[in-house]
Every structure is written in structure tokens, then in C-alpha cells.
Predict the structure.
Amino acid sequence: MSAASVITPLTKRYGESVDTYFSGSPLNRVSFLRNDYTFLSSALTHPTTKFMLMEKLEPAIDTATGTLKYYTYSDVKDAIGNPFEKPESEAVAAWDSSKTAPLMVFLGIDESVKDGVTYGEYSGQAIFALDVTAPTSELATYASTIAELVKKAVDADAPFTLVRRNFVLSPGEAAIYAMARSYLDWNVRNPFCAGCGAPTMSVNGGAKRVCPPTDKGVEKGPCPSRGVVTNISFPRSDPTIIVAVVNSTGDKLLLGRNKRFPPKFYSCLAGFCEPGESIEEAVRREVWEESGVKLGKVAIYASQPWPYPASLMVGAIAEAIPDGEGIHLEHDPELGDAQWFPFPVVQAALKVAEQNNILDFTDTPTELPIKLPPSKAIAHNLIHAVVFDNAHLPKI
Ligand SMILES: [Zn+2]
């Protein structure tokens, strides 16, 4: 859910909410209804409900409109049936690991659509993501119906499209895609129980996997994941920090060039947050390890889900301490270069990057000394917040 645009004491002190690309979903996830199979069954079979198809984690996109290509329940019924006919507890009790089914995830309801599924006080158009990747198991009885769906999408000029470097989707659709991709990817990667190695079962509309106590009616051996509160495996999000670092006089920005980047391509410093570490500590550690710069205050500015596969980029703005601005690249040899750039240099490069919809790692020539990430990347948001909006200065 994105924020309502209202000026309040909090927005006056910290600024308005920032919706980054891949966030700002138009859907209400109604996560508390995921274990209610009466609801899921109504949502699944409702005539307005939409199904996005994903093959190898990439969505079918209509070439003509640049939007997600959706299908109805009648289109996908032969492939998926109705896995929500029985209550979840009965489905778990009837678990048969030899019966495979396509992966499907309930994403939420779009409450702006008035003729969608209604359930108690909740109403809207339901959206599901359906994995149409060809199954590798010879036991998969749904292989041919899934293959037909793939052909249907391709014939309708809606090919499965790599979104990672070509941000064609509108922000709302990008957020729906990001959720679908992360959930499907997590399901694909967790077919077996981490506690006992037995096959796991997708429940909660694809948002949880369990290790059922029986398989084909036969009791399984003991499993540590079937304790009172541990019979669960939930999707993960990996916290990653990314930071715009300002010098102590507030007129230069620290940018780094990864060794893999083409010449002139600079960005904010970033890295994974480690266990037992706060976001602020991770920012200070990563910046020191990669550039040698020592930081004082770290302020969290905005965050961005990055569904490759499940990162949550936490964007920060930070200040270097006056005697900690020296650059030293030898601790962690990840960066090929790091430099302090005066704001006017960064502003000029950012204006060029704003026009770019593609994460351009090609070595296209530029007259400017640096190239920066495109507007859909949180690095761009962070740099913009500092060099154009003075997010590092006191509010007047
Ligand atoms: Zn188990």
C-alpha cells in the first residue's frame, strides 16, 4: 500500500513518503485471508479475477501496450483446477507429494475495481500469478495445458519479457510483478523441508510452505519443523543497504565504480546487511570497507523491493565525519574507483540518467565525466534527494 499524500507533523519533519520503483502496489494483499480457502476459492473463480502468467520468473507483457498480459479463470482452469475447494487443514491432511500442480500465488485485490469478488467487508478484483514454466518432472500431468497457455501468450504477441534491465512496466504493475516474482522464486527454491528433506506443500495461497505430517495418508518420520510453532517456512527478504554519502561540508557526494561497471558508470555504495547488525551499522561498515570513508549520522530515506531474487534495498543518506573523508580502496577490493564529486557534476549526469529507462551497462560515449543509474533505481532517488532536494540539510 502506498502512502496517502497528506501533510502532517511527520511529513513536515522527515519529508513526504517516497514510492520507489517495484514498490507502491495498487493491491491490498489481505494477507489475513490467505488461509481462508472459502475466500480464495471465491476469488479464484470470480469472472473478473485476473491471472498473470510467468515463465522462468518473467511475465507475459503485451508488446502493443507495454502492460502485463492477464488471463481469466476460464483460460487457466484446465491447468490449475481449484486447489482451494477444501479447507487448508483438509488439503494438508490429504497431501500426496506425487501429485504435482503448477505454482500459483494469490497477490491481493484491487479495491478500485467495483465488480470484483466480495467477501465480508473486502471487495475488489483479485489477481493471481501463475507459473507456466515447463515442469521438469515427468509426473506433471499439467505439462500440456501449461504449454498451451505459453503458446497462447506468445501467439497474442505477449512474450515473456526480461524486466530487470528494461523497466517498461508502469510503477503499479512493476510492484505487482515484483511481488509475484519474489514469491514464485521462493516457492521454486524451497521444494524440500529444511528439517527432514521431505517435499513441502504450498499453502496460504502460495505465501507459506509446510512439511505435512503425512504423505498419501502414511505418517512421516519426525521432523523438527513440525513443532508447535515451527511448522512453517515463509518467504524471505534479504536486507541490503545502499547509501548516498555527503562530505562534512555538504557539497560533495561519494560515488563508487564497481570493477564490473563500464568506464564512467558510478553509483551509490551498497552491500548486504549481515546478521546481528543494524541498518545504520551495515551502512557504516560497507562504506568503510569499500571506500575507507568513515561515517557519522546515517538516516534511512526510502526502501525498494528488488525481486532478484528477494532483496529489500534500504536507502540511506549519510554524512562523513570531518577527519574520515580520505578514500582508501584496499580493505575490500570490490570497487575499481571511488571519488568525491562536486554537486554540479552529479546534477548534470543525473539529468542525463533521468531520460534513461534502461540500466545501461554498455559503454556508450558521453561528454560528461560520469554516468549514473536510471530513474527507476533507488540509487537515483537517493542521489536526487541530496543534490537537488538538499535532503542532507535542515528543513527550513
Ligand atoms: Zn520436514
